[in-house]
Amino acid sequence: MKKYNFILLLLIVSSLVNAASINVRILTTKVIKSFIFSPIIGNYDVYGDGILLTNSDIPGIFQMTIENDSIILKTFEKTIGKYASLKMISKQADGAFKIKSVLPEGKVRTYEDNLSVELTSDKNQFLLINKVEIEKYIAGVVESESGTRTSLEYYKLQSILCRTYLLAHITRHTPEGFQVCDDVHCQAYLSRTSVADVRKGVSETKGLVVVDNDLNLITAAFHSNCGGQTVASQDVWSMSTSYLKSVKDTFCIHQTHANWKRNIPLEDWRAYLQLKHKYPVDDSLKLNDATSFSQPNGRSIYFTDKDLKIPLKTIRADFQLKSTYFSIDQQGEYIYFNGRGYGHGVGLCQEGAMHMAYLNKSYKDILNFYYQNVHLVDLSALSYFRQE
């Protein structure tokens, strides 16, 4: 039965990997009412409501705005027409374009392959969908999530994790007319990559994904810095897994986001505990406990005394702290949070992993350090399993 499930998994995932492209909603978090499109590599055909309108053999700039329930397409010289939908289709395999939000004003972003332009169901904003080859999308995600200044070995690891995450969530937005978004709700995808090592890392790991002992795609969680110890999945998301366990990590403790500080007025802390959590702050002993919290033996899950447990993730969310790995002490009329790490703390610690790669650890070694009992699956070997 397990072998049958494995083959079924490979069939499903392989069909997605071998698909020509994926539909990604871009500029998801902005309410776009006007934007500019311009080719930067190659030429593009422009289709309005399925009809070829013009092409950009001479690279040009197109602006799209909303008028009533329609999209107005124009250049600097003229208005081309009014449409329900538009498509910008690359005439070359390496086509790329830039896009800039005009209303609201935004920065220039660059993408590869094709762009579909529609309106949302309320006709109030643009729905912009980048139809892009999966491996090009993964490269854009890797740069967006990892930056441009780390090593090839780390980019290999991040490519595998981003590919695994994509395939595990590839139908997340299907009812909305696309497959994934470009925000952290799916994975950050801010542009095409500009880094040769990112493309190389994606290419050299093409088809590799991570599965657990039951041959399911893992939840490929990662965060910026764990502060010296990662967190088990059930302590953050109430989801126990065999592979997202707490790991002591000495590789990240001297990195950029290893430590942080924050202070708030003592009265704000008292009011928060009393009003939201019914904490007896009028009791001097209780108040002393509430102003002298620490985690000396590694990460805790609760801000706690004998009578009350407050999840640290709740405090983190309410005060927008960088992590749950903090101590609390009082200095005069202020409460000081002395924190470690940045992010939810589950899975891969990016800064720790980058430092491991700097120390010449392989991407496989790093993967198995942060994720327990996992396996790399090469989907190119699918034919072997079909023959069994």
Question: What's the topology here?
Answer:
Layout: H1 2-17, E1 22-25, E2 34-41, E3 44-48, E4 51-55, E5 62-67, E6 70-74, E7 79-83, E8 86-90, E9 96-103, E10 108-112, E11 114-119, E12 126-132, H2 134-146, H3 152-168, E13 180-181, H4 196-204, E14 208-211, E15 222-223, H5 234-237, E16 259-265, H6 266-277, H7 284-290, E17 292-293, E18 302-304, E19 309-311, H8 312-319, E20 326-331, E21 334-340, E22 348-349, H9 350-358, H10 363-370, E23 375-378, H11 382-387
Parallel strand pairs: 1-13, 15-22
Antiparallel strand pairs: 1-12, 2-5, 2-9, 3-4, 3-8, 5-6, 6-7, 8-11, 9-10, 11-12, 14-23, 16-21, 17-20, 18-19, 20-21
Descriptive notes:
- This protein is an alpha+beta fold.
- It is built from 11 helices and 23 strands.
- The strands form 6 sheets. Strands 4-3-8-11-12-1-13 form a 7-stranded mixed beta sheet. Strands 7-6-5-2-9-10 form a 6-stranded antiparallel beta sheet, covered by helices on one side. A 4-stranded antiparallel beta sheet has the order 16-21-20-17.
- The protein starts with a helix and ends with a helix.
- The percent range for strand residues is 25-35%
Low-confidence stretches: none
Q: What integer value in Å does the Rg equal?
A: 25 Å
Name the helicity range. 25-40%
Tally the structural domains.
3
Structural class: alpha+beta
Average predicted confidence as pLDDT: 91
Give a short synopsis of this structure.
With 388 residues, the chain is α+β, with helices and mostly antiparallel strands.
What descriptive keywords fit this protein?
seven-stranded mixed beta sheet, 29% strand, 388 residues, 11 helices, 3 domains, globular, alpha+beta, single chain, six-stranded antiparallel beta sheet
